[in-house]
Task: structure prediction
Amino acid sequence: MLKVYGYPNTRSVRITWLLEELALPYTYERVDMQHGQHRSEAFLSKNPAGRIPLLETEHGLISESGAIINYLASLKPDAELIPSLSSYRRAIYDQWLFFTLTELEQPLWSIAKHTFALPKEQRCEAVIASAQWEFQRALKVLAQGLGDKPYMLGDRFTALDVPLAHTLFWAMAAKQPIEQANINDYIGRMAVRPALSAAREREQQS
Result:
């Protein structure tokens, strides 16, 4: 059985959310980041980066949320949450997945690092303003790419929508302005998905 190492209100909800969408059985192990469990020798032996999410499979461990998402979506091809490798649609899927992880998410992570995540002596307040500007620029690109579609690839929900929506939820929690109406409508559609509620409940109860 698949096993997720995670912690509530982190990127690990991307994994539990997708698992709930796919109706795949899994177990969940909370890694207590508040008390440094992610830096323990036991956890570092599984993921030397000391980060979550981490997925344990019968074949081995997988880190990085984008890689885990693609792996899980590929386990259940009949669900059609990830396009086939040889298709143009898959190239567009990958385009927006990489954009989400490298252009949309990274400014938010920079803000978090220089606000609370890094040791105080390593923080630089000037980085925060620059990252906020970068995020707003990425939002404009996203709004144009989303257009009037209900989901990022069109009329059907795909695994791509999981990290994208989660990143936008993160932005809202960080009080970053989102002025684009189509993005706000998209956030509203994603926020009420039953699988997301189930994933959050699972993480909180574990």
Summary: The helical segments are 12-22, 41-44, 65-75, 88-117, 125-146, 161-173, 181-191, 194-205. Residues 104 and 137 are 9 Å apart (CA to CA). The radius of gyration is 17 Å.
